[in-house]
What we know:
Strand content: over 45%
Strand order of the largest sheet: 1-2-3-4
Radius of gyration: 16 Å
Structural class: mainly beta
Shape: globular
Number of strands: 11
Amino acid sequence: MLRAIANRNEFPLGVAVDGAGFIHVLLAESILSVVHETGQTSDARLVALRYAPDGSRVWRWEREREPVMPWMQYSPGGTIAAVGDRVLVLERAWDEPTRLIELDVHGNAVSEINVDLTGDLRIDQHAIARDGGGGLRDVGGLAAMACGAWGDRGRA
């Protein structure tokens, strides 16, 4: 499925299938890439797609943000999970807060939680548990955090 939708400007980040057979795909979609003699400017958007069990596209959600300034770069990453009738997107990007975004069955963002990472915690892996909880882990073993309450709209 990923090969069928990915092109040179789309980078697959994750796939989730819900109980009804709908397929959810998370992509980083490159919208600008300019290389200069003195630097580079690049920009991308986080995109979630929902496909019906028959393969037809149901909706497309795009993370809105301001374009990058010249000589800057933005490259989002993350993962996606289907939990009941919710679609959860865990978003991360360099020098940006890590966020858990909940989408409804129509592709509308209904909640967003910023994950406050303090100290020198560096995110090397991220995941969304089957119950909607989130987990972040520093592979170097310096720090770890798991928040099972993320799926409950911010209850911590």
